[in-house]
Amino acid sequence: MIDPAFKVGEVDDRLFGSFVEHMGRAVYGGIYEPTHPSATADGFRGDVLALVREMGVSLVRYPGGNFVSAYDWEDGVGPERPTRLDLAWHSIEPNTFGTDEFLRWAAVAGIEPLLAVNLGTRGIDAARALLEYVNAPRGTKWADMRPRDEPYGVKLWCLGNEMDGPWQVGQKTAVEYGRLAAETGKAMKWVDPSIELCVVGSSNSSMPTFGSWEDTVLDLTWEIADHISLHTYYDPAKFEDVDAYLRCSQDLDRMIDTVVATADAVAGRKRSRKRIGISVDEWNVWHQTANPHHVGHDGPFKHAPALAEDEHTVADALVVGCLLITLLRHADRVRIGCLAQLVNVIPPIRTSNGGPAWRQTTFHPFAHAARFGHGTVLRVELAGDEVEATAVRDGDGVTVFAVNRSAGTTPLDLVVRDLDLTVTEHLVLDGELGASNTAEHPDRVTPRRVAGAELPPRSWNVLRLT
Ligand code: AHR
Q1: How many CB atoms lie within 10 A of CB 134?
Q2: Which ligand 1 atom minimizes the distance to the CA of 167?
Q3: Parallel, antiparallel, or unpaired: how do β-strands 17-19 and 334-340 relate?
Q4: Is the beta carbon of 430 within 6 A of some atom in ligand 1?
Q5: pLDDT tens digit string along 13-47?
């Protein structure tokens, strides 16, 4: 039973974001490859741009990730582009692609940019200079160095990345980070009061400081924080069996509840009515055990090595579907989401250098959610956890997103109180749980239309009720 009166909240369009980091072949060979046959005059891969638009990505976070924590943004602007060692990914960074290229790519792709500043090796000065470069009108040092007259007007900014992690260049305690983020955020809002700031939350729910980190950081940054980040990846090899893997979204659900409760406890202590948004700005499946070559700090540094180029399966698509449903079910507090990442690195889209680009299995649930998931989320109460589902009401009707985790066909009795609606379209993604798409077979796993409202075994479903 779905009741239009039981509203969870309005979906923020920024929920359907993604992430492009200077990591592996995400930038070089992913969104940018000037020698590719489909390249635009700016060197952007046209085939990737078409898929990004088809996927419905609303926002992209850039330039990292771990990369940003040792990034000197000045290297990536202007005529001189020094080649540097990137310590995060043991790579050679030529800096031919930087802030202006990214913001141009974002405009061409029709997505909102979300920029991160380096709070690992740098701080207030570099952040305020970058913001002046990007958003200030002409007439001052950094704004005058920008290649275009008009400011870019970037609204969303991340204050660093995963500062609690020992893998981060410039790892910090919650107090060290909280103080630096508070002062950096203060200066940035003095440069441009219209921006929104995301402070760094825990890197995942198993961090020893999960919970207390959020409490301390929000306590110290309360005046300037608009959102707090939450990151989470699920590795199929870390679960006992596929049934447990298909339930991993329950961890995200608990994480969101914990961070919301912590943020609201800080608000209570401060007698504040402010409600901090949750920015789930890195989430995905990640085959770290099966495909471990994303780590390592020895051997020669290479330019754009193939890192984390995981091949996503039907099981991964079902998990991504459950994670999307979980984000939607928290639409009252989760305002930003970034599927990490976009191209080649933990990717919904893959490419080969000079060759084709193709959709992975996980592309499809994201594209469906980004297309039909706008409007008001309605509460859906489920009996048991064999089915994960949520409903979104828009001007034309209601869309139900559902994952059938079980190995059997499951009927879905859909009654929408007070509205005369019937199922007029039912899209399904299913198949062998291990099946995937490849360059040779790019459409092996692809959605199909079915009649009726039964959920096939182990399937992702989109039901349009009009
Ligand atoms: O998305 C890959 C990496 O995962 C990011 O750089 C980092 O923030 C996270 O640990």
Answers
A1: 25
A2: 10
A3: parallel
A4: no
A5: 999 999 999 999 999 999 999 999 999 999 999 99
